[in-house]
Amino acid sequence: MKYQIGIYGDEQAAVDQFSAIVEIECPDSARDLLNSLTPFLKEFHCAHGMDDTQTLAAWLPWHLIEIGRESFDDLSSIGISRQINAHIDFFIKLSPGLVEVFRIDELLEWHALAQVEITCESVDVSAYEIEPDAASDRS
Question: Residues 65-100, buried b or exposed e (16+ Cβ, 10 A)?
Fold first, then answer.
């Protein structure tokens, strides 16, 4: 499958208003690729914010190399592009806190397949009641 992953600084940005595009060719399904990207994107979003498009554009190819070592025939399966390619199977749009997946058909029409929200939910310890003896009760 051929994918392009577009990185955008704004959720409402038009498709051609990308900051960077990463290309990848791999045997993974769109679902499998999305499942492998989501933990990385959550960690990145919590540490840097997905609106830091330059840093995301630098780190994403390295992540793809790490997860695809067994899948890719060689490193030429991952690249950086300056334009959206007409000969792709899927396009993944990354914007701050959101991942959108589109299937591109033979007529070059885009069909939305999935939308995943990336959040940084922290747990507020004060929101939970802790019994006074529970923290020190270790046997």
Answer: eebbeebbeeeebbeeeeeeeeebebbbbbbbbbbb
Distance between CA 51 and CA 55 in Å, rounded?
Answer: 9
Give the pLDDT band of residue 77 (cuts 50, 70, 90): confident
Residue 104 pairs in a beta bridge with 110
One-letter amino acid for residue 5 of the chain: I
The first and second tokens of residue 96, run together, are 């701050």
Rounded Cα–Cα distance for residues 138 and 25 (Å): 52
Give the H or E element holding residue 115: strand 110-117
Cβ-count burial of 17 within 10 angstroms (0-12 exposed, 13-18 middle, 19+ buried)? exposed
